[in-house]
Predict the structure.
Amino acid sequence: MYLIIVRKIIILFSILKGILIMIQTPTPHISAQKGDFAKTVLMPGDPLRAKYIAENYLRDYKCINKIRNMFAYTGKYNNKEVSIMASGMGMASMGIYSHELFNFYDVDNIIRIGSAGSISDQLEIKDIVIGMGACTDSNYVNQYNLSGNFSAIADYELLMKVSTLIPNIKRKVLVGNILSSDLFYVQDESSILKWKNMGILAAEMEAAALYMNAVYANKAALCICTISNKILSNEHCSTDEKEKSFNDMIELALELTLKI
């Protein structure tokens, strides 16, 4: 009798959870309806890059979100349904959108496709870096009230699957540890050299929050970035190039969706 009561409580909880999720969609930040997103979402930071990807790579796509101009699209890539949605800049913005996608829209995989500044001498502009791990100077992890330091890492299955695609990429691709920073303009420039001495390949601003949200929701995430600038030498590509010319990274991520 006790086990029957427990099972009924579990079933009731699942039903109530489903109802709650339905009530929470659309959210204050995403106007899409339940079911509008594919199971895998590619997330560039720039809304215009999301638009560019949809227009140039997806078939039969439709726009499913325009709130705050954070464009989201769902369409077909080689007959596989995939969604593209901008994350905005920084871990606060990524934290909001990835949380809602994982927890309210039943998204299983988020692949960040963004730009990063190289720290390692091995990376040149337009090379690709894949974040196996994401160190951070952010306090985002504090919400979990852990008694030690948390290592934000990519999903192993996604990482292994993308590794099989790397030989097809003409540009250099490095896999390793990256830095997710709250700071774009760093006052203490010596801090970058300290991260370099610890083997950090590049810096960006979103991956750590994405990885934390994914593991907490029992979902999967990966960060793939194109090098848009070299932090220590102050070299950089143009804004237009950042928006439209990161095709190697985009195609790598899209091909990865076919393996998921």
Summary: The mean pLDDT is 92. The beta strands are 40-43, 59-65, 72-77, 80-85, 109-118, 128-136, 173-180, 202-204, 220-230, 235-236. The chain has one domain: 2-257. The longest helix spans residues 2-23.
